[in-house]
């Protein structure tokens, strides 16, 4: 498991950036350590480390799934990560348009608002 954890930390840093991961690690406690280990090994060390599909595609899938399921809290983080995965703002919008048709306009609308706010914060002109 150490290899999967180490791979997960490497991929997590590549996608989310060192500053984000350092903040998350600094906030880790004995209480949430098992959860942090599980997502590092599972999400980052297994899923995101797999090269069957590109990180760009995973990024777009992740954003669409977060919006479609109403898990909006992580959308800004994954918008920031799209700078590292290569998913463009136009591609992100297309993912959210899919959400509008297949999961609901209100979910897409909120995801788009979060994306706009995050891109503005990053200095990305839309």
UniProtKB/TrEMBL annotation:
<feature type="domain" description="Carboxymuconolactone decarboxylase-like">
    <location>
        <begin position="35"/>
        <end position="117"/>
    </location>
</feature>
<dbReference type="InterPro" id="IPR052512">
    <property type="entry name" value="4CMD/NDH-1_regulator"/>
</dbReference>
<dbReference type="GO" id="GO:0047575">
    <property type="term" value="F:4-carboxymuconolactone decarboxylase activity"/>
</dbReference>
<dbReference type="GO" id="GO:0051920">
    <property type="term" value="F:peroxiredoxin activity"/>
</dbReference>
<dbReference type="InterPro" id="IPR003779">
    <property type="entry name" value="CMD-like"/>
</dbReference>
<keyword id="KW-0456">Lyase</keyword>
<dbReference type="InterPro" id="IPR012788">
    <property type="entry name" value="Decarb_PcaC"/>
</dbReference>
<protein>
    <submittedName>
        <fullName>4-carboxymuconolactone decarboxylase</fullName>
        <ecNumber>4.1.1.44</ecNumber>
    </submittedName>
</protein>
<dbReference type="Pfam" id="PF02627">
    <property type="entry name" value="CMD"/>
</dbReference>
<dbReference type="InterPro" id="IPR029032">
    <property type="entry name" value="AhpD-like"/>
</dbReference>
């Amino acid at each position: 498991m150490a290899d999967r954890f180490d791979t997960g930390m490497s991929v997590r840093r590549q996608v989310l950036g060192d500053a984000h991961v350092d903040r998350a690690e600094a906030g880790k406690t004995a209480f949430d350590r098992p959860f942090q280990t599980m997502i590092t090994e599972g999400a980052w060390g297994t899923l995101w480390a797999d090269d069957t599909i590109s990180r760009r595609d995973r990024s777009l899938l992740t954003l669409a799934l977060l919006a479609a399921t109403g898990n909006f809290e992580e959308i800004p983080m994954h918008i920031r990560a799209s700078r590292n995965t290569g998913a463009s703002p136009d591609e992100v919008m297309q993912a959210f348009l899919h959400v509008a048709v297949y999961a609901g306009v209100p979910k897409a609308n909120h995801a788009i608002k979060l994306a706009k706010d995050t891109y503005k914060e990053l200095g990305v002109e839309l």
